[in-house]
Design goal:
Layout (H helix, E strand, L loop, with lengths): L1 H9 L3 H26 L21 H12 L2 H5 L6 H34 L5 H26 L10 H26 L4 E3 L3 H26 L28 H5 L6 H28 L6 H27 L6 H30 L4 E3 L5 E3 L4
Parallel strand pairs: 1-2
Antiparallel strand pairs: 2-3
Helix pairs in contact: 2-5, 2-7, 2-12, 6-7, 7-8, 7-12, 8-10, 8-12, 10-11, 11-12
Bound molecules: protoporphyrin IX containing FE.
Length: 377
């Protein structure tokens, strides 16, 4: 009786489920807007971070002139956008303003229902703990967003690539953790792949993909696509010669990454090589577990992994070649969002394994697809 009660409480209320799905859509939108903000060179247009008073945009010509005057003091204006008109400034202001407004909006859509559901006892203890972690993660992501912007208001006419990549990874982790919460809550009990090898292979693949996403963020932060917009070679070589010269491998070159072409060459080379590695390991992972038949939904997600991987690599190559004609905004955005969907397929599979592990009545499926009863833990 007590167990059924617990199970029932854990079973997700449909309003709560709808709210979590809305949250997921909003975070997806925020990451997309963030990508377009970067790709349109809009990220440094608002030079202050005013959480409350910055909610409204400039309303008068005078107010616009004031905002524009603040932007004219930035290195980006002096080095890249000197002579920009007010209407051009309004374009870049719009995207950064929308990115920040969407963050405020997400905060409201999250907080108010959260307090209501909590007060009405519609959230399990586990869900409350997870959602508190999610709020913390979102707060760190937003704060790091400002730390990143501030890094572009001093010397460089762009934000620091390491900080951009960290902000990107944090943004992804908010989406992925919310997805993990939702999948875990929707499927509290289930059939899961055997714990050991499948789980280990999945975690290894996930780690490599997260590393690739970090490299991707570095590519964007350094505008590395402009340096070698050719494929399959890098200006006629499969590896830029300077990477073979040890005198370039200095701490200075890693820290002051835009002083020489070394880091741009290294990051793009590694992003390419890691992509090819992901194809090999990803394909092997797909073939090895496509007969596991954990459940119809699990199998669909497993197939989606390999389809998205092929799309992502193709998009990457097209984005790279797109740099021959300037900043490829649409391709770059698509490449970023498919990366998010790609890693989501692995996080869903990982959540499945973890949920099967948690559930006392779950049924384990080992690698060859036969069902074995898991001993009660
Ligand atoms: C599994 C494979 C891949 C993954 C997961 C991946 C992921 C990413 C991510 C997350 C970004 C940052 C996007 C952003 O900040 O907006 C990025 C940027 C980039 N990637 Fe990939 N990538 C992959 C394969 C490739 C391949 C094969 C190429 C080309 C050979 C490539 C070329 C690029 C370029 C040029 C950028 C910079 C785009 C920009 O500045 O907006 N990627 N990648």
């Amino acid at each position: 009786m007590q167990q059924d009660m617990n199970e029932k409480q854990n079973r997700l209320n449909r309003y709560v489920r709808g709210w979590l799905i809305l949250g997921l859509v909003l975070v997806f939108g925020q990451i997309l807007i963030g990508g377009v903000t970067r790709l349109t060179g809009s990220g440094l247009s608002i030079t202050k971070w005013e959480i409350i008073t910055g909610t409204l945009p400039p309303m008068t010509t005078e107010a616009w002139e004031q905002e524009f005057a603040l932007y004219k003091e930035t290195p980006q204006y002096a080095l890249i956008n000197d002579g920009m008109s007010l209407s051009e400034f309004k374009f870049i202001y719009f995207w950064e303003y929308l990115h920040r407004l969407w963050a405020r909006w997400m905060g409201l859509v999250f907080l108010i229902p959260f307090l209501i559901f909590w007060r009405k006892g519609m959230l399990s203890g586990r869900l409350i703990r997870q959602l508190c972690i999610l709020v913390g993660l979102a707060a760190v992501t937003a704060s790091f967003g400002w730390i990143m912007v501030a890094s572009g208001l001093i010397e460089r006419p762009w934000v620091n690539a390491y900080k951009l990549s960290t902000h990107l990874l944090l943004g992804f982790s908010v989406f992925l953790y919310l997805l993990h919460i939702l999948v875990g809550a929707i499927w509290p009990h289930g059939v899961g792949p055997s714990r050991s090898k499948h789980h280990r292979n999945l975690v290894a693949l996930l780690s490599l993909l997260v590393f690739q996403i970090f490299l991707g963020g570095m590519m964007s932060g350094m505008k590395a696509g402009f340096a070698y917009p050719t494929w399959p070679d890098m200006h006629g070589a499969w590896m830029p010669a300077m990477l073979g010269d040890v005198s370039h491998w200095t701490v200075e070159n890693f820290v002051d990454y835009d002083e020489t072409g070394f880091m741009v060459a290294l990051v793009q080379f590694m992003h390419r090589i890691t992509a090819y590695l992901l194809i090999i390991i990803g394909l092997r992972y797909y073939i090895r577990y496509r007969t596991a038949h954990v459940s119809p939904w699990y199998d669909r997600i497993h197939t989606l992994w390999i389809i998205l991987l092929i799309i992502q690599v193709t998009l990457g190559i097209l984005t790279l070649l797109g740099f021959q004609r300037g900043m490829p905004v649409a391709l770059g955005s698509a490449h970023q969002m498919v990366a998010l969907l790609l890693v989501s397929t692995l996080v869903v599979q990982w959540t499945w394994i973890m949920e099967a592990r948690r559930s006392p009545r779950s049924v384990q499926v080992d690698e060859v697809g036969s069902v074995g009863q898991d001993t009660m833990r």
